[in-house]
UniProtKB/TrEMBL annotation:
<protein>
    <submittedName>
        <fullName>RNA polymerase sigma-54 factor</fullName>
    </submittedName>
</protein>
<dbReference type="Pfam" id="PF04552">
    <property type="entry name" value="Sigma54_DBD"/>
</dbReference>
<keyword id="KW-0731">Sigma factor</keyword>
<keyword id="KW-0808">Transferase</keyword>
<dbReference type="InterPro" id="IPR007046">
    <property type="entry name" value="RNA_pol_sigma_54_core-bd"/>
</dbReference>
<comment type="similarity">
    <text>Belongs to the sigma-54 factor family.</text>
</comment>
<keyword id="KW-0240">DNA-directed RNA polymerase</keyword>
<keyword id="KW-0238">DNA-binding</keyword>
<dbReference type="InterPro" id="IPR007634">
    <property type="entry name" value="RNA_pol_sigma_54_DNA-bd"/>
</dbReference>
<dbReference type="Pfam" id="PF04963">
    <property type="entry name" value="Sigma54_CBD"/>
</dbReference>
<dbReference type="InterPro" id="IPR000394">
    <property type="entry name" value="RNA_pol_sigma_54"/>
</dbReference>
<feature type="domain" description="RNA polymerase sigma factor 54 core-binding">
    <location>
        <begin position="77"/>
        <end position="262"/>
    </location>
</feature>
<dbReference type="Pfam" id="PF00309">
    <property type="entry name" value="Sigma54_AID"/>
</dbReference>
<keyword id="KW-0548">Nucleotidyltransferase</keyword>
<feature type="domain" description="RNA polymerase sigma factor 54 DNA-binding">
    <location>
        <begin position="276"/>
        <end position="435"/>
    </location>
</feature>
<keyword id="KW-0804">Transcription</keyword>
<keyword id="KW-0805">Transcription regulation</keyword>
Amino acid sequence: MMKLHVQQQQTVKLHLTQGLTQAISMLQYTSAELNSRIDELSMENPLIERKEPDVPRSFYHKTKHHSHREQTIVPEAADHRETLKSALKRQALDLHLSSREKRIFSYLTESLDSNGYVTEKLSFIASELSVSCKEIEEVLAKLQSLEPAGVGARSLQECILIQLRRLPAQTDQAELVISRYFELFAKKAWKELSAITDLSLAELQNVQDIVAGLSPRPGAAYDHDERDVYAEPDLIIAAENGKLTLELNTRSFPDIQLNAYYEPFLYRRTKDEASSFLSEKYRQWKWLDQALRQRRETMTRVMNEIMIRQKDYFLNGRNDIQPLTLKEVAEALGIHESTVSRAVKGKMVQTPYELCELKRFFSAKVKDESAGHTSSHTVKAHLRRMIEEENKMKPLSDQKLADLLKEAHGIVISRRTVAKYRDQMNILPSSVRKRYE
């Protein structure tokens, strides 16, 4: 027979209040997310009023995915850029298309992906528009004659061929290789290609150089939503006479104030519905004001600690980034590691050398022969420099790079780690880097 027992047990649990949960979420918001959230709250709460920010410094940067370059731009340019579809429709005015062709052209342009490729089968488009495949092909050929070169391609192979045929120089060899032996070319099987085509390794190297100068994604220059990112720093660090200064971008750290119109009503002693409403909204305003101040203070403390730990980088350049973990910063500041993680997530900093994410300053530790540690950023910098300076006729293998790191810098890593870092930097293996002239 089962016996039932009543047992009292005491447990300790961390209970996060709604206010604390929201304050934590405020910390991890990016500038855009934070400003959007404040706008939402101010729509619901008449007591919340923004303080007008100071005019921000012009630190806008246009960046491309998979690229390490930044270019300062005029902020207003982001709002007046032509889209790929509008550029094609503008150029189509010179094609003198019939009404039937315009319908096909419009369908094709609307179905282009962000790279400028036609991804739907022509037979499907023909059935959708109740026209023949031949008509689709004729209009597609006209689309492919427009700028940017390669737009309207149905594959990478076709995209490259379209661009090759536009080049002023003779590209017969390149067109032969790409049109007939594209898979071998993509695999960089040079010796096999040489045997099949009777082209020398030097000639194939020339084909590779020509193709490398073409764009595999012709529509990317117009893809503003995903490919082009106009970034503005949250924090700005300057170095002068060996000293560092930190400045906060006011647009990333917005301030609020109490709407002066409602302030007299807050001191009334009445207990009517209006007073209760204003009391509740005042508590929300007070919480938001405190959360914004806490966010500013936490991020400032975290950035100041990073500046202390990475002082050599801020004074000398990117090769001097030291190994650093979230835990080390958290312990130095007496806060939780997750708080540091939220503080750096998605945040940008303008340094004397570049615009970068805060997470850049946190890297794994790599042991060296002196029983010390070197950051993975520094190791990658050494690898990049050695590969840039190598003899391209006899490129350095991953094992040779590992050996040179040990000999020249006392850094001990395996061949597999070299390969991993090389892949992260988008650097090809030695067999592909090899040149034949």
